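Hello forum,

I keep getting stuck at the same step: I have a sequence, I want structure tokens, and every attempt I make locally crashes halfway through. Rather than fight my setup again tonight, could one of you with a working pipeline run this one for me? It's a single chain of 543 residues.
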Amino acid sequence: MQSAGKYDYIIIGAGTAGCVLAKRLADDPNIKVLLLEAGGKDDYHWIHIPVGYLYCINNPRTDWLYRTQPEAGLNGRSLGYPRGKVLGGSSSINGMIYMRGQAQDYDGWAASSGDPGWAWDKVLPLFKKSEDHYLGASPFHGAGGEWRVEKQRLSWDILDAFRNAAAETGIPKIDDFNRGDNIGSAYFEVNQRHGVRVSTAKAFLKTAGSKGNLEIMTGCQVQRLRLETTSAGVRCTGVEFTGGGRQWFAEAQHETLLAAGAIGSPQILQLSGIGSAKLLQQHGVAPVVALPGVGENLQDHLQIRMVFKVRNTRTLNTMANSWLGKAKIGLEYALFRSGPMSMAPSQLGAFAKSDATQERANLQYHVQPLSLEKFGDPLHPFPAFTASVCNLRPTSRGTVRLSSADPDVAPAISPNYLSTAEDRHVAVQSLRLTRRIAAASALQGYAVEELKPGASCESEEDLARAAGDLGTTIFHPVGTCKMGRADDAGAVVDSHLRVHGVTGLRVVDASIMPTITSGNTNSPTVMIAERAAQLIIAARSAA
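Reply #2:
Ran it on my machine without issues. Output:
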């Protein structure tokens, strides 16, 4: 095994969190940082064109190509489970939506972890620190940060009509989802600059390491963390990995920072002997630290994609189903960086309550002027729109568990969607609310006809089955290395993101969320990395 050198900090994963960490730590010229990434460089042109997510997801060049286990709640279906495998991680292939969630999400983290530093009023400055909002600085937004936020560069009559219809059903029009209470409808703001994707690699790594103290190694697959057990306890001393046809060991003189995401981080911990002793022994891995919460508590937003045929309006279906239409779309993007090629996967958003008993919005809509059978299939040959609706705070909990001691073998991913009666009931209520919106007078001029699941589905049982047939991931897995107090048997890290029972090791990514945020999870992960960087730098100064 060849030495890759000694570093103050080793970051595993150059995804959303890893890029932020690398930037913040390497800004200090006295800190030497190694950033390891299993994927390649972000030089694939489709990463940077917003509509290019269509060509990055399910592409081994940029995607881990995970699949879930067959899901009982989805009527036995297995889902593709995209995760970015490239500099920028999932921020290089995701929907680019800038969303923070709700204030109560973070207040809940503070309460469960016992650390008021995770409360909304404390994390809001961290969101603002990274942000470069197109409207400039304000009480809720930052300017001059790395993480660019802009309006989308498009307009669709059918989406305007849906927004008007939502207002008729009690979902008000608002202009900002990111002030702590996101109930209402608006066009999503996106991480783009002039119609081009802004990933965390582009935003944070571009200026990182200018002092020569950051080394970035791509194509490096982590095999395990090296753990040393002494009379003082267990310490992580570095990382064993493969790259360039060789086996390497890099030594971390201060800390190893695991930022491989909600799937990768628990797998690496388990490969290293940290997790459920029973699970590890089943796969021939010697247990070092018993932490049964590793890989448990998986949460994700399940989107239920309702499709409605329409008339008397344009949708992307009809525009993109002819060579002339495609040529016009390409020309508009080439000349103006606008139009369908600048589109995020979802353009219009809405947050609503599934019923009057909810204290805050528990549903999120992603509305699109297009339709297809499933992701990756061609668009339908008729005009239509899709209203995807997801339960923001599911009670179902899944797992990410080692399936082999071979690091190249993917873990077993079981989200357990719709496994609770509450989640199935919310799914049914969400379908019924969508029908009420579609029936509102603002949409009547478009001859709206429900295609999926179809008007014949009426009973609670039929609609629950339809939710299982139509439901798919919206790519927000979190929670598998849960943050919590030392007396929480399911907690993996403390409120400073240090792994329980191990020194020199933190987890910094979406896996530490004790509960999923009420909205898209990418920018909350940026915030997590910002707070981790502050905690690490403070600990270094105090040493």
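The two ends are 32 Å apart (CA to CA). If your local run keeps crashing, start a new thread with the error log.
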